[in-house]
Amino acid sequence: MRLRRVQAVVWKELTDLKKNRGLLLSLLVLPAMLVVVPIGTVFAYASNPEDPNLRTMALYYDPKLPMNVSAATFLIEKALVDWFGMFLVMPIFVPILISSQAVAGEKERRTIEPLLASPITAVELVAGKSLASLVPAVAISWVAFAAFCAGVDVVSWHFLKVTLMPNGMWLFGVGVIAPLFAFFGNGIAVVISARVAEARLAQQIAGVCVLPVVGLVALQIAGVLRAGGAYYAIQGAVVLVLDVLLLVAAVRLFDRERLISRWT
Amino acid sequence: MPGLAIDARALTKSFGERPAVEGLTFQVQEGEVFGLLGPNGAGKTTTVRMLTGLLRPTSGEATVLGLDVRTGAEQLRRAVGLLTEQPGLYDRLTAEENLRFFIKLNELDEPAAWARAVRYLERFGLGGREKEPAGSYSKGMRQKLAIVRAIVHEPKVIFLDEPTSGLDPEAARTVRDAVAELASEGRTIILCSHNLPEVERLCARVGVVKGKLLAVSTVRALRRQGASVAVRVDGEAARFADVVKALPFGPGALADGEVLTVTMEKDQDVPEVIAALVKAGARVHSALPAERPLEEVYLDLVKGGEA
Fold first, then answer.
1. Over the stretch A135-175, which tens digit does the pLDDT of each residue have?
2. What distance in Å separates residue B49's CA from the closest CA in chain A?
3. Helices and strands, number each (H, E), in chain A
4. pLDDT digits (tens, 9 = 90+) for B63-96
5. B-chain residues within 8 Å CB-CB of A6?
6. What is the pLDDT of residues A196-207, one digit of tens each?
7. What percent of chain A is predicted at pLDDT more than 90?
8. Is it true that the peptide bond before B57 is cis, omega within 30 degrees of 0?
9. CB-defined contacts A:B, below 8 A
10. Interface of B with A (CB under 8 A)
11. Are strands B33-37 and B59-64 parallel, antiparallel or unpaired?
12. What value does the mean pLDDT take over residues A38-64?
């Protein structure tokens, strides 16, 4: 594998991304929502901690909750644990948006043949496209996480007088699990993009892979699943295995002959 | 003495059960401009893709600049330039960014390669426009930029797949001029086209493809394929057309004023034609070898290929 050629692909993809305003805007909407919504939730709990409805909600999740424990504090802590599951949608979704454009977009715009006629190998191409999608995805996740921490601490400070974020679970999650999920989202997008002709179709199909994550969060909110550090670590381990499988599949699907004969 | 740039032997490509091209055997000398003629779907692009290492031949062999298309594909892609049918430019990137990307992919010395690219841009009339997005270029400009991209790594062999397809006459002319300039530098050029005047103008030799190679020859020899003779007679030549057509070997006859152009399969039949004309009372002034329009020869070959 020649590093210069991988760098060339990363350079081209990032240069193109900077000029794609529509895609940049879509990349910012989801992170903004995933930051603003939990901050708003924490604010709602912290701004009126004596609301009797909060105890009703807290008892739904933990019927044995002692009376001397603040329902607002319990719900804030639970919201922060559960929201990490939803936060993982971001590192999956951002690479899906970028990689679908980067791979299926090449076919759609008929730029793939000159690219494949260059000396680049399939592994270099997959590596370059993936890096160009993973780096922004992880960077956006980390910036969003920083904004999330600051926002949560600001809105909860007047009630709790302690900083809640960042905590160990979130730091481990955003530092280790989020990149694994980003790799997963990228792998799915690359594999699907290698099989379909349009970036939009690739995004739609790949987007379906976000649904299980959303489903897990829904089960957490419904009180069926109890999330925590170990729970997220198991998710991370499962995704790591899937990442390896997707990487192998992506390299195999990036066969010149297949791409050329099917899509040009 | 120039060596062989391309040596294809029984080159065949099938997609599943469907053969795209079968048994192509031809050679191209270094520095030659070789035309691959054929209708849409004839296998020209498939042939180019095999010769540029993009598709693996199903059977047969081919070397380009001595590199085997099966085993040396990566080296081959470094050694040849390909202008695809669609320019395939990144529209949001500027012309400079498009070229720099391919300079990087080819691992060239970037300052030197960029200086070379600038010279080509200027030669092709794109000088000073390199900071503009490729998406803002006209069709002809895009095609010329794609040509610069195909040659920025100084390949010895350049494949041009339908370089003027879909261009207006003015843009097509500027692209043809660009190709002629490249040819004048002594590069080997393979030009795929069904634009016959373009092929006639640019190529010394052509191969006519329609699934199989129907003919490989110089343009001149192709135009003289089958015997054709222009007979000048006294008065209206049309009077003698039926006399010629009635001959047992079935020649064709086309009259234009005093000239009767007779086409037949073999040169050996020319004396019989003259004898028949004289016998019918024609005063023959001259009988000279005539060249058929390339279009006519091409259509005959392609029609024959369908049979």
1. 999 999 999 999 999 999 999 998 888 899 999 999 998 99
2. 9
3. 13, 0
4. 999 999 999 888 999 999 999 988 999 999 999 9
5. none
6. 888 888 888 888
7. 53
8. no
9. 82
10. 15, 49, 52-56, 74-75, 77-78, 82, 84, 86, 88-93, 97, 101-102, 104-107, 133, 146, 149-150
11. unpaired
12. 91
pLDDT band at B173 (very low <50, low <70, confident <90, very high): confident
A residues 148-187 closer than 8 Å to B (CB): none
Closest residue on chain B to A11 (Cα): B101
Residue A16: which of B75, B92, B146 has the nearest Cβ?
Answer: B92
The answer, for A15 touching chain B at a CB cutoff of 8 Å, is yes
To 10 degrees, what angle do helices A178-193 and A122-160 make?
Answer: 140
Residues 117-136 of A with CB under 8 A from B: 117-121
Q: What average pLDDT does the segment A229-236 reach? A: 87
Q: Is A213 on the interface with B (CB under 8 A)?
A: no
The per-residue DSSP string of A181-222 comes to HHHHHHHHHHHHHTT-S-HHHHHHHHHGGGHHHHHHHHHHHT
- Picking from A109, A114, A256, the nearest residue to B149 by CB comes out as A114
State the nearest Cα–Cα gap between A101 and chain B, in angstroms: 12
CB contact under 8 A, B92 and A12: no
Give the ipTM of the model, two decimals please: 0.86
Which pLDDT score is estimated for B2? 67
Residue B181 pLDDT level (bands cut at 50, 70, 90): confident
Question: Does residue B24 have a pLDDT over 60?
Answer: yes
B149 chain-A contacts, CB cut-off 8 A: 114
**pTM listed for this prediction:** 0.84
